[in-house]
Amino acid sequence: MDKEKLIIINGYPNTLRKIEIVERQVSYLKKLGYPILFISGCKIPSSILDQVDYFILNTNNEPLGKDFTYNLLNSGYWDASQVYIDFSKYTANFYSDIPNNIITENIKLGFNLAKTLGYKSVFYTEDDNVFKDKALDSIKDKLNLIQEDNYKVITVLGPQVQSNFMMAFTTLFFANVDFIIKNFNIPTKKEDWYNLEIISKYSLHKTYEGIFYDLLKDKLDLVLNIESEFIELHKQNFIEWGIVNRYQNEKYLIDNYFTILPHVDGTKHLFLFNWSSHLIDNIKPYSVKIYFDNNLVAEPYLNTAGCWFIVSIPEEAQQVILDIDGYGQKILETSWDVIKYNGLLQDQ
C-alpha cells in the first residue's frame, strides 16, 4: 500500500440509497491500493467502516442558514448563492441553507490528518461520485503528477453556469497536502461567514466552486485543468458524478418551494412551485388545500413539474396551513421577521 498517497471521501450517508452509493464508490477506489479516509457527518455502517483505513466522525453539521443569503443580498452581493426562477409575470428568488462551512471544516480536518499521518498527495472526493475501472487509471496518473510535484492542485476549471465568474471543482480534486493546508484559508467558524470583511476577502458570496477558484487564481501555473478529460470520462459513464443532491429530497423541495415570499412592493404572497422533476421516484402531482387562519381560501392542483400557484396573503393573516394530499400538513408563519429569509418576489 502506498504510504504517501491518500484518498479522502467527504460524506453524509444517512439513507440506504446513499449508503449503497458509498459502498460502490469505495469498492472501486480500493482497487487503487491507496489508504482511504472517510469523513462523515453521521455514523456509518460496518459495510463502509470495515473497508476504509481511517474514519472521522464530525457531527458539527449546522449549515449557514437562509439568513446568510439574505444578509449577502442586503449588503450588495447580488451574485450570492440562491435560486432564481422566472414565472411569466414574476421572478422568484428562493433562499435555502448552505453547507459551505461544513464542507470547509471537513476538508481541513482531512488534510490536517493526512499531514499528521505523513501523506503528501491526496485525491479528495465527495460521497456522490463513483469512479469506475476506466477512471481509476486517470486517478492514479493525477496522484503521480501531484506526488512528483508537477502541480499543486489538479481539478476542473471553467465558467460558473449562469454566473460571470470562474469555478474550480471541489466535489473532486487532487492536491499537495502542504499546499492545501497553507492556502485553503476559507473560514470554518459560522460567525465568520457573516463578517463583511471576511466575505470580501474570500469571495464568500460566490458558490463554493467560485470561492475555491479565487483561492487558486493567482497560482494557476501550479494548477492543472482536467475539464476536457473529466467531461469525456463522465460522458462515457466511467464517472458517475453528483448522483445525490438535496433537490432529490421531497421534504427539501416542499420546505423551500412551497413557501411565503415577500414582494418588493411590501406585500406577502404564498408561492407553490412543483419541482418534482428532481425526485428519484419521478414527477408527481400535488393537490393542496390552502387555509388562512383555518379558513379555506383555495384548492390548487399542480398536476406536474413546473406548475405553480400564487396567492396574496392579507396582512392580518397569522398563519397559513397547507394540506398537501399524499404528503401531509405544512404550517407556515407569516411574520415579516420569518418570511424575509424565504426569498424575494418581484414582477418581471
What does this structure look like?
This protein is α+β, with helices and mostly antiparallel strands and 348 residues long. The protein folds into 2 domains: 5-64 and 99-240, Spore Coat Polysaccharide Biosynthesis Protein SpsA, Chain A (Alpha-Beta Complex); 87-92 and 246-347, Sandwich (Immunoglobulin-like). The chain is 30% helix and 29% strand. The chain is built from 11 helices and 22 strands. The protein has helices spanning 16-29, 46-49, 66-74, 100-117, 133-147, 177-183, 196-202, 208-216, 227-235, 250-257, 336-339, and strands spanning 5-11, 36-40, 54-57, 83-87, 90-94, 121-126, 130-131, 153-155, 157-159, 166-168, 172-176, 223-225, 239-240, 258-262, 268-273, 286-292, 295-298, 301-302, 308-313, 319-324, 328-333, 343-347. It has a 7-stranded mixed beta sheet, sandwiched between helices. Strands 16, 17, 18, 20 and 21 form a 5-stranded antiparallel beta sheet that branches. Strands 4-5-22 form a 3-stranded antiparallel beta sheet, with no helix packed on it. A hairpin with a 6-residue loop joins strand 9 and strand 10. Helix 4 packs across helix 6. The longest helix has 18 residues, at 100-117. It is globular.
